Amino acid sequence: MLCHDGDLKDLKRQGLAAEEKFDGTRVKIVKKNGVVTLINRHGIDYTHRLTELVDVAKAIKGEFTIDTEAVFVNPVTKEVEFTPCQGLPDSGKRQKALCYSGLG
Question: Which of 10, 11, 60, 65 lies in disulfide reach of 6, CB 3.0 to 4.6 Å?
């Protein structure tokens, strides 16, 4: 299906659902036997890179898998940025991450 130009009134049509698209990195959050693992779309382990998401996942009861988009919010500008996703995975630098549009 191709996209077509529209306007604000198109978003008010009955039965239409839309949301803002944030650019981040896709991540699968898996909690099994109390252990949380974060894996990106290429199978790279992001568990130590996105510790803030690990902490939140540990606080949720039960076992689950969430396929989601992790986006980063610049603490100064409050804008969503993609650049921190491209940093070195083992830099030891704690990232501020927000899960967006996660589906369990």
Answer: 10
| Angstrom distance (rounded) from CA 63 to CA 30 | 8
> What's the rounded mean pLDDT across residues 78-104?
53
In this prediction, residue 82 carries a pLDDT of 63
Q: Can you give the C-alpha Rg of the chain in angstroms?
A: 16
> Torsion angle, CA of 77/27/69/73, rounded to 10 degrees?
-10
Question: Are the C-beta atoms of 99 and 53 separated by less than 8 Å?
Answer: yes
Domain spanning 22-103, CATH architecture: 2-Layer Sandwich (3.30)
For the chain, the structural domain boundaries read 22-103
